[in-house]
Specification:
Elements: E1 2-6, H1 10-22, E2 27-32, H2 44-49, H3 64-67, E3 70-74, E4 78-82, E5 87-90, E6 94-96, E7 99-102, E8 106-108, H4 127-136, E9 142-146, H5 150-161, E10 165-170, H6 182-194, E11 197-201, E12 205-211, E13 214-220, E14 225-227, E15 230-233, E16 237-239, H7 242-246, E17 255-256, E18 268-270, E19 275-278, E20 285-286, H8 291-305, E21 318-323, E22 326-332, E23 341-347, E24 352-359, E25 362-369, H9 375-383, H10 407-413
Parallel strand pairs: 1-2, 1-7, 2-3, 7-18, 9-10, 9-15, 10-11, 17-19
Antiparallel strand pairs: 4-5, 5-6, 8-16, 12-13, 13-14, 19-20, 21-22, 22-25, 23-24, 24-25
Length: about 425
């Protein structure tokens, strides 16, 4: 059996390991546009800030591909998938497959901005992006980050840690608009301000002023002006579905997959940020671009590619992050309070904020700011779609824990899956 994987991040990594646990003899080929060893994109902001050295961002030892007997084609771009021929094409040659995994991740969205065509700007998605940005920071003083999602804020913190004056511009009214509600966003915005980062919400860049290809300032829609000699575009990432779409594979916002991570094309699978699978709370299919989802999808895809039938039960939108000394975890749909019961616990002096949304007895959204120790229990309750009505009054108690759960739920939590 000849397995080919396009991509080389979390989904690919977990697929490789699942295949090898199932089949020691199959051929595995990884083709990736990036030339690097498999690494964690979640750590590139720490490398940019100088908090960790580059070797720490890599996810496996240097002999990983050799131990797993993986043929690598790194630094090579796949130009076409040929489902009828069961081959993938690069500019150099064609590679046949018996099973193919598309794990192409996402690509940055760059909005049209007046003056952007006249300057050099930066994205912050890959390790190479981080290296280029680090080099560009020399002799720079004023950085502007467009976008206050997780990637944008992590980049902003890293740049501030390097000593630059940093301004963040976000079109939404709050920072982290997809992950947090208004109250929790305000806590993060204050933490950023305490770090010396200026945040402009409800605003965007109307015009970039430049000189000889270098930005000098950004004019905002609100009428203000922000000094800028370094611009990072971090508006968002979209599923990278072009190869699949061109090959006639069914796509929507992402590459549509079934419960076995199979696409509409025979012998072709998809996993990770490019894939569109079921979301647990709603049952609706959607891309959920977070590491735990990519890892699980890759593992399920790998097992199924190798002939060990495994079912993907769906994903939960989740975010785990830290800004300054404030840790934040969110699950599900944290702003969708319609027809729901909202429970909150707020302790402003300690920066603690907890919120749970309950609909039809089940938790559909949850946020934990600063006090995150027992957040994993809520993830279990949401993923298992457990009716929390019998112990609802304990959910936001400072002492809430496993002991408050019915015996059958506790038993399920600590039963190792077969």
């Amino acid at each position: 059996m000849n397995h080919v994987i396009i991509g080389n991040s979390f989904a690919a990594l977990f697929a490789i390991e699942a295949i090898r646990r199932t089949d020691q003899d199959a051929e595995i080929t990884v083709i990736s546009r990036e030339p690097q060893h498999v690494y964690s994109r979640a750590m590139i902001h720490e490398m940019l800030a100088g908090m960790v050295r580059e070797p720490m961002v890599y996810l496996r030892d240097w002999d990983f591909y050799k131990r797993m007997r993986v043929r690598t084609m790194l630094g090579r771009t796949v130009t076409k998938i040929n489902p009828g021929l069961q081959t993938v094409s690069t500019e150099e040659d064609e590679t046949p497959y018996d099973r193919l995994l598309i794990a192409t991740g996402g690509k940055p969205f760059v909005p049209p901005l007046n003056g952007l065509q006249d300057i050099t700007y930066h994205s912050f998605i890959t390790l190479e992006d981080a290296k280029k940005l680090k080099a560009a920071c020399e002799n720079r003083r004023n950085a502007v980050v467009l976008g206050a999602g997780l990637i944008g804020l992590q980049c902003a913190e890293a740049l501030r840690h390097m000593g630059l004056d940093v301004a963040v511009v976000e079109m939404a009214d709050t920072v982290l608009p997809m992950a947090l509600d208004t109250e929790s966003s305000q806590t993060i915005a204050k933490e950023l301000a305490d770090e010396g980062i200026t945040v402009h919400t409800g605003d965007t860049i109307n015009l970039i002023i430049s000189n000889n290809g270098h930005p000098t300032e950004c004019k905002l829609r609100s009428g203000g002006t922000v000094p800028c000699d370094l611009l990072v575009i971090a508006v968002g990432v979209r599923p990278n579905i072009d190869l699949a779409k061109d090959a006639g594979i069914t796509t929507d916002r992402g590459i549509v997959v079934n419960e076995h991570m199979e696409t509409s094309a025979e012998h072709i699978y998809a996993a990770g940020d490019c894939a569109q699978g079921p979301e647990i709370v709603t049952g609706i299919t959607m891309p959920i671009p977070v590491i735990p989802v990519a890892s699980t999808q890759g593992m399920i895809a790998g097992y199924n590619m190798a002939g060990k039938r495994r079912r993907y039960g769906g994903a939960l939108a989740l975010n785990a992050m830290q800004f300054g000394d404030v840790q934040v975890i969110s699950y599900g749909f944290v702003k969708d309070e319609r027809d729901g019961e909202v429970l909150k616990y707020i302790d402003p002096p300690r920066k603690i904020y907890r919120k749970v949304i309950i609909k039809n007895g089940r938790i559909t959204g949850a946020i934990f700011v600063k006090d995150v120790d027992r957040a994993g229990i809520f993830r279990h309750l949401m993923e298992k779609r457990i009716d929390v009505t019998p112990f609802k009054e304990h959910l936001l108690s400072p002492h809430f824990g496993v002991a408050h759960l019915p015996a059958e739920i506790r038993a399920d939590m600590f039963t190792r899956p077969q």
